[in-house]
C-alpha cells in the first residue's frame, strides 16, 4: 500500500476524565530543497517528541556537538524544544524521504527516554521492524481519516512507543543472529568490563572503524557499546553488592568506574535504585538480583 505524502495534524479536545497520549502530527515527506531546516531551539510548538525515520536518501541531524548523517534505515529522536538541528544534506543527489511522528511527552516520556538511552539518538531500525510497520500504518490511517478521535490517537502513540521498547527486548534475545564482529565486541566487553574500554580500543579489536562498529553494534543489539558496557557492569555490581561486603567505592573500582559517584549514577539510571538501596532493600523488596530484558 502506498504511503500518502503530506503532514496530518491532530488537535483533539482534551478529555478531563482520561489521561491520554496526545498525537500532534504524522506524515511522510520527500525533501529536495536546501531550505529545509529545523532548529529545536527556535520552535514554538513544543513540548513535543519527534521520531523521524529515513526511507531513502540522506539528511543531517545535529545534537549538541554531535553531527549524524541519517540514511535509509536510520531514525533520529528529538525533544522539542532542544539543542538540535536537522536539515537536508547539502550535497545529497537524491530526495530525503522519511516518515515522522510528533506527539506530546505526557505519559510516554519515560518510555521514550529509556529507548533513547539504550538505542541512542540515531538508532537503526529494519524496515520490517514492528515500530516502522506501525509508523507506516499510522500515516496511512491518518491519510484515510481513520485516526478520528483522541482515544484512537492515544492508542496509536502508546502502541508505537511500546513497540520501540519491545524491539529492544527481542533484539537482545536474538544474540545468535548477531554478526560475528558484534559478537566479538560483546564478548570483549563482557571479559574486560573492569577496565576502561574506549570505543577506539573496541573498534581496533574487531577491525572496524568507530562509525561502523557503533552502527552495527546498535543495529544488532539495540544498545550502543557504552550502554552495553553499563548493563554488564550493573549485573556484575548486583552480584558484588549482595554477595560480598565490599564498599561501594571498592566495587566501583573493581568494575572499572573512575569514581564511586559515577558508579552510583550509572547504577541508578538502569535500576532506579542506588547501590546502597539495592544492597539493603530499604523499605522495598530485598532483591537478590534484578533481571533485564
Automatic annotation (TrEMBL):
Domain HTH araC/xylS-type: residue ranges: 183-281
The record's listing under InterPro entries reads: AraC-bd (IPR003313), AraC_XylS_family_regulators (IPR050204), Homeodomain-like_sf (IPR009057), HTH-like (IPR037923), HTH_AraC (IPR018060), Tscrpt_reg_AraC-type_HTH (IPR020449)
Q: Which Gene3D superfamilies match?
A: Homeodomain-like (1.10.10.60), Regulatory protein AraC (2.60.120.280)
Record keywords, A-Z? DNA-binding, Transcription, Transcription regulation
- The leader peptide range reads none
Please give the PANTHER family that the UniProt record associates with this protein. HTH-TYPE TRANSCRIPTIONAL ACTIVATOR RHAS-RELATED (PTHR46796)
Name listed for the protein in its UniProt record: AraC family transcriptional regulator
Amino acid at each position: 500500500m502506498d504511503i500518502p505524502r503530506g503532514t496530518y495534524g491532530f488537535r483533539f479536545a482534551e478529555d478531563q476524565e482520561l489521561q491520554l497520549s496526545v498525537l500532534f502530527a504524522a506524515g511522510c515527506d520527500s525533501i529536495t530543497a536546501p531550505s529545509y531546516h529545523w532548529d529545536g531551539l527556535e520552535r514554538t510548538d513544543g513540548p513535543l517528541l519527534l521520531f523521524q525515520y529515513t526511507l531513502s536518501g540522506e539528511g543531517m541531524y545535529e545534537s549538541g556537538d554531535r553531527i549524524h548523517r541519517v540514511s535509509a534505515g536510520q531514525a533520529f529522536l528529538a525533544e522539542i524544544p532542544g539543542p538540535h538541528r536537522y536539515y537536508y544534506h547539502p550535497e545529497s543527489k537524491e530526495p530525503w524521504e522519511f516518515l515522522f511522528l510528533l506527539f506530546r511527552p505526557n505519559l510516554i516520556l519515560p518510555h521514550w527516554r529509556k529507548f533513547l538511552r539504550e538505542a541512542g539518538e540515531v538508532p537503526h531500525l529494519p524496515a520490517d521492524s514492528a515500530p516502522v510497520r506501525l509508523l507506516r500504518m499510522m500515516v496511512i490511517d491518518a491519510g484515510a481519516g481513520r485516526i478520528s478521535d483522541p482515544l484512537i490517537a492515544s492508542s496509536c502513540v502508546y502502541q508505537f512507543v511500546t513497540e520501540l521498547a519491545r524491539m529492544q527486548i527481542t533484539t537482545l534475545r536474538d544474540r545468535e543472529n548477531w554478526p560475528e564482529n558484534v559478537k566479538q565486541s560483546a564478548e570483549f566487553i563482557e571479559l574486560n568490563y573492569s577496565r576502561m574500554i574506549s570505543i577506539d580500543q573496541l573498534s581496533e579489536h574487531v577491525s572496524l572503524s568507530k562509525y561502523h562498529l557503533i552502527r552495527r553494534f546498535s543495529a544488532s543489539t539495540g544498545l550502543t557499546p557504552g550502554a552495553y558496557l553499563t548493563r554488564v557492569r550493573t549485573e556484575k555490581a548486583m552480584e558484588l553488592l549482595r554477595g560480598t561486603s565490599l564498599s561501594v567505592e571498592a566495587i566501583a573500582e573493581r568494575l572499572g568506574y573512575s569514581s564511586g559517584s559515577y558508579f552510583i549514577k550509572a547504577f541508578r539510571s538502569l535500576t532506579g535504585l542506588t547501590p546502597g538501596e539495592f544492597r539493603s532493600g530499604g523499605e522495598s523488596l530485598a532483591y537478590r538480583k534484578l533481571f533485564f530484558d
